[in-house]
Write a structure and sequence with these properties.
alpha+beta; Cytochrome p450; 5-stranded mixed β-sheet; 3-stranded antiparallel β-sheet; 54% helix; 8% strand; globular
């Protein structure tokens, strides 16, 4: 018997099994790589080789907080359609909005990607991630609260907190000369407003001049969310890691659940006559089979969607108008010459400020609160996107920050120019229809009216009352990473009251 045969036969059973299993695993990886690169239905779409092979590069960027910027680089290199993962395409063209999010000719719709919208399967669903028919029923009940008429009914609630915000800013100016962290105060105001509109009471942020623990947990969840989304593609590992969560985390989740349940019970006790965002759901909660967990889930998503995003945009707009003093001067002139008194500033009157709207839209372009793409899934039978046939089950997304920063669609794309939304000839070739911060189609953002109402009213009241100057420490404030939400540092601003006889 040859030495080689003796050596092979001498190997123990367990090592041979391990060698065989590892060989199979390596072979499986090699076969998967070959399939993804050369045989996959998306093989003809351009993109980096590493992204075609595996989802790891995509999620590395996602978890690392650089995905918005990386997407712009990919589109600049590969064009309007980029294969960013073995089964996902990123689109960067104005026409892609309606192709992906509008009504399909087949009558089907591109459903929301489960891995992105429901990374923890055990959590109750809400209006954002419900299937098509359930979404329609919930949206029908919530529609009035978000309508223009609904906003007028809720104006006293909104105005109460904007009044308190202005009073607190005046108090700060009277007590010290230090800059104020205006980004925090925008959050205090928007969270208090939406807390009242969804739960019937504020979070007490403005009164306490700090974040409620409920809100602090939202800011801590962004990076965890990106990790859970990545782990959706390795469900066994996700299950193991979630089971190993420390007791302190589980206790915090339980306290959060108890708090939100108590808040919802108090709101239910107020009855269905109160005009707020949750009124429509409470009126039909039995008919819609909305148990407590579903009511809470919908209230929570309304709070997240109706507060952090609005405060983020206000912070971004404030930064850009202060970095462009001529814009601030022009905006201040419009605000301060349009009203005879502060009492004349309301949800209707601020809608007549044309330059204000242009400033807000330019802020949404330069610093979109939702910077990354929100992926959809192509339905059975496939679909046409940008006149290309996209096979069924492909994930597709439009990454907002990357789209808005492309010179192909916006002249001087990296500069802040509100005039582009005022028919300035210099920006005549801009594709204004590319700007869709609230998305399009049957599942567009229900909170558009609320967001614009809040943004206009808050920014108008602040500018009506104060001159503002950016602190030196915040000159590079916009250099941030993004973990589903922008990781904002403190936006420090010096305020100077212009109505010294206010009291």
């Amino acid at each position: 018997m040859s030495p080689t045969v003796e050596l092979v036969l001498g190997i123990g059973t367990l090592p041979r099994i391990l060698l065989f299993v590892s060989s199979l695993a390596i072979l499986k990886v090699i076969v998967k790589v070959i399939y993804n690169v050369f045989l996959h239905p998306l093989r003809e779409f351009p993109g980096p080789l590493s992204h075609k092979i595996s989802r790891l590069p995509y999620f590395y960027k996602h978890i690392n907080g650089t995905l918005p910027f990386d997407m712009l680089d990919l589109h600049e290199k590969y064009g309007d359609i980029v294969r960013v993962a073995p089964d996902e395409l990123a689109f960067s063209h104005p026409n892609a909005w309606t192709d992906i999010m509008g009504h399909q000719k087949s009558g089907k719709e591109c459903s929301k990607a489960e891995w992105f919208y429901q990374p923890v399967e055990s959590l109750p669903r809400h209006i954002v991630n419900e299937p098509r028919e359930e979404h329609r029923r919930l949206r029908r009940q919530l529609a009035h609260g978000f309508s223009e008429k609904g906003m007028r009914e809720q104006e006293p609630i909104i105005k109460r907190y904007v009044d308190l915000l202005v009073c607190k800013l005046y108090e700060h100016c009277q007590s010290n000369t230090d800059p104020i962290i205006l980004s925090d105060w925008y959050n205090y105001c928007t969270f208090d407003i939406i807390g009242d509109l969804a739960f019937g009471e504020s979070f007490g942020c403005l009164e306490g001049s700090n974040y409620h623990a409920w809100i602090a947990s939202i800011f801590q969840s962004g990076r965890l969310g990106t990790l859970l989304q990545a782990l959706s593609f390795v469900p066994r590992l996700k299950t193991v890691l979630m089971s190993l969560a420390p007791k302190s985390t589980r206790d915090a989740q339980q306290r959060h659940k108890e708090l939100t349940t108590a808040k919802m019970l108090k709101r239910i006790e107020m009855g269905n006559e109160r005009h707020d965002l949750i009124q429509g759901l409470l009126e039909k909660k039995d008919e819609l089979h909305l148990e407590m967990d579903k009511l809470i889930a919908n209230a929570e998503i309304l709070i997240i969607g109706g507060s952090e995003t609005t405060a983020t945009l206000l912070s971004g707009v404030t930064y850009y108008i202060l970095r462009n003093p001529h814009v601030f001067r022009k905006l201040a002139e419009e605000v301060r010459t349009s009203f005879d008194s502060e009492d004349a500033i309301n949800l209707v009157s601020v809608g007549k400020l044309t330059y204000m709207l242009a400033v807000l839209n330019e802020g949404l372009r330069m610093y979109p609160p939702i910077a990354n793409g929100l992926p959809r899934q192509i339905p059975q039978g496939g679909a046409q996107v940008l006149e290309r046939a996209i096979p069924a089950n492909t994930y597709v997304a439009i990454h907002q920050w990357a789209l808005y920063r492309r010179e192909s669609y916006f002249h001087k794309a990296n500069e802040f120019h509100p005039e582009r939304f005022l028919h300035d000839p210099e920006f005549a070739k801009d594709r204004d229809d590319a700007l869709q911060p609230f998305h399009v189609g049957p599942r567009n953002c229900l909170g558009r009216n609320l967001a614009y109402s809040e943004m206009r009213l808050i920014l108008t009241r602040v500018i009506y009352n104060f001159d503002m100057r950016l602190d030196e420490s915040s000159m590079d404030w916009v250099k941030q990473r993004n973990y589903l939400m922008w990781r904002k540092g403190p936006l420090k601003v010096h305020l100077t009251p212009i109505h010294v006889d206010r009291d």
